[in-house]
User: Fold this.
Amino acid sequence: MTTTPTTTASAAPPGHASSRRASPRTAVLRAEARLFLREPGTLFWVIGFPPLLLAILGSVPSFREADDGLGGLRLIDIYVPVAVLTGLIMAGLQAMPPVLTGYRESGILRRMSTTPVPPSALLSAQMGLIGAAALLSALVSLALGRLAFDVALPRQAAGYLLALVLAVTAAVAMGALLSALTRTAKAATAIGSTAVFPMLFCAGVWLPVQAMPDVLARVVECTPFGAAAVAFGQAAAGDWPAWSHLGVLALWTVVLSAAATRWFRWE
Assistant:
């Protein structure tokens, strides 16, 4: 796919020889955004599936009852952060890798290197769109939890936002590394689909991290989504997320990003 700069809608001021033009990176971002919005499957798994999962779980009566073993919380209170992380995992492992790998496989990135638009513009556009979709998914899940099931909004909003941003960057970095290591779009889809399940387990889909045995919980908290789940829970309760959990998220982001940069190939 080769893109060309698009002209702005307004006419150039008198005395100018040509109208203003959008930058190549902006043109690529607009084109990728249009293509992204035309993928109903991607939109469903990233933005639609997490709230749907939350709605199904919230319809179970036992999920809306306080549990003394969870410190008086309801299961639905714990599963709102899980739904948030589910959207991030789907965005990082399912949405981005097949697209970027497909572009490389079909030679689009190689052809872009001969145009004024650098291939890095396509990479940054994809990462930005995936990150924005993950954030939107998180907001939808938080809003649904509040409006439908009376789940309190995070009492430590700044800490929750910081943990969310770090979790999004870790998810995007994980997707970038998967894109770097796979040669074909089919392989990226297969590996991403396989990796989703252990990541969902670490996020607490089948068993909340708070309810895991101590040894298992410590291991899970060393993973990016396990650390994020605990950080979300701490911020939701009004405490600043532990710096150890924020540090795990930041460290994973740095390591995954460095590995993706090291092994990513344009062709």
